[in-house]
Amino acid sequence: MFAAGQREMQQMDQFTIDKIGLPGIVLMENAGARVVEEILASTPCEHPKVLVLAGGGNNGGDGFVIARRLYDSGLEPLLCLLVNPERLKGDARLQFEVYQNRGLPIFFLQENTKAAFQKELARADIIVDAILGTGVSGPVRPPFDLVISLVNEHKGKKLVIAVDIPSGVSSDTGKVVGKAIEADKTVTFVFPKKGFFLQDGPRYVGEWKVVDISVPPSLVTDLGLDLPTVITEKLGQEAVPVRPQQGHKGTFGHVLVVGGSRHFVGAPIFAAKSALNSGAGLVTLAVPETIYPMAAAQNPESLFLPLPEVDGHFAEAGLNELLPRLHQFDSIAVGPGMGRFPHGEDWLKTFMSSLTTQSVVIDADALYLLCDELELVRRYKGNIIFTPHPGEMARLLNCTVREVEADRLGIAKSFAIENSLFLLLKGHRSVIATPNGAVYINPFGHDALGKGGSGDVLTGLIASFLAQGAVPVNALIAASYLHARAGEEKAKALSHYGVTPFDIMDGVREQLNLIG
Ligand SMILES: NC(=O)C1=CN([C@@H]2O[C@H](COP(=O)(O)OP(=O)(O)OC[C@H]3O[C@@H](n4cnc5c(N)ncnc54)[C@H](O)[C@@H]3O)[C@@H](O)[C@H]2O)[C@@H](O)CC1
Ligand SMILES: [K+]
């Protein structure tokens, strides 16, 4: 499944109408019919009062179909037209005339009907938002802004269903510049919109469902559209490396985790445990020697490489022990808990220069220490995976977090291409980008994952799947998907507040158990 923006939706709709020959009015009829099915399937009571709010574009046109079809389903909805009917054009005008020809009731919102409108709003059980769709531009103008505020006042008390996208949310960027509908559910056509996953979008879209309106999804390929893929349960599960039953620990790969410092003891332990819990055959943990006893006590399943240290951080002398062994490992994760230290850049530079072709996950402070060494990264013969959160991404690009958040898809894609690496840009709705420009959005996960150590678990998962033979993009998809789903499921039992890194690891095992 892909995520689309305004222009791509227009291209696909237009191709279906002009080249395939299905009239726009048929698409609109399909769209309305599908939304009605979803309304009837999610109704909170037996004879709900439905208020359909329609704007002046094609999203409003869908609203006319919805109101008419709700009547035919035995309900008594009220259609509320928010614009002067003279302004209606094209298919929306046609559908409005059909509605009128049926003699069905219409409430016209005008200056002198605002009080009556508020009463209708208060009476409704379900509010259908067909005010603005993908055609919105700029802040929502009067009277829509007022209507949207009034609808949002009923948040939690009425079921608000948005048609295609909550009115006021940009389908390209998720940005809300003025007012926008806070939907409980969004019934969207053909593909989810990019804006569901970006910036303000996730706060407004609620639960979303894609419905078919006879615009073929295969048009993405036919029209050569460059769209991000939305990770589904199927894609996430299929990306997990298959495990041969006759396999032994050698089959499942050897992960090296390099990290830890006096102040950050847990991070490398979480990464190593996570790698083992998700199927790696062997895990070696290279840590500064003072934290070795604790790491070993916490994690007896791992092998250890205690290394010399200075002031609680890796010392240069340790490289002599570490570097000759690097060829033994199938994947390497470097950075968790490593901290920042005066000779850190040089330490990591020497480390990186000694690698040949192993897949390397660069996380946490290793990202910080490598900021000025991207040339080294670009030249590397093996696969490199960066896993920055928005703050780390901003530092890598020498820009602000706000700038990163304003264009997560574009920034992830260009950074991955320019530096020939795989990127997992963390945050709500993680984005994965590959060196050849493919982009994936993870629609799963929520605040339960927002806790120190959660990222280390993710890093361990990525390294684990790489060691088990997954190609980097699959390792990232599988790890990101399982991590997010584990957080969601664990939060149901333990609350959004209570999920710890160990719970996430446990949840990942439960998710792995669901794979057939
Ligand atoms: N043939 C098609 O293209 C189909 C379109 N469909 C629906 O049509 C929608 C897109 O329709 P449109 O392109 O007509 O766009 P919209 O219906 O989203 O909105 C366009 C209208 O809103 C006004 N508008 C734009 N920004 C505004 C703002 N900030 N404040 C107030 N008014 C504003 C414009 O003047 C215009 O009248 C989709 O989201 C979908 O719901 C579906 O019916 C399926 C078929
Ligand atoms: K809408």
TrEMBL record:
InterPro entries documented for this protein: Carbohydrate_kinase_pred_CS (IPR017953), CARKD (IPR000631), Nnr (IPR030677), Ribokinase-like (IPR029056), YjeF_N_dom (IPR004443), YjeF_N_dom_sf (IPR036652)
The name this protein goes by in its record: Bifunctional NAD(P)H-hydrate repair enzyme
Cofactor binding: number and manner: Binds 1 potassium ion per subunit.
EC annotation from Swiss-Prot or TrEMBL: 4.2.1.136, 5.1.99.6
Self-association state and partner proteins as the record states: Homotetramer.
Residues the record lists as binding K(+): N59, D129, S167
Domain YjeF C-terminal: 232-515
The keyword Metal-binding belongs to this UniProt entry's keyword annotation: yes
Cofactor (UniProt): K(+); Mg(2+)
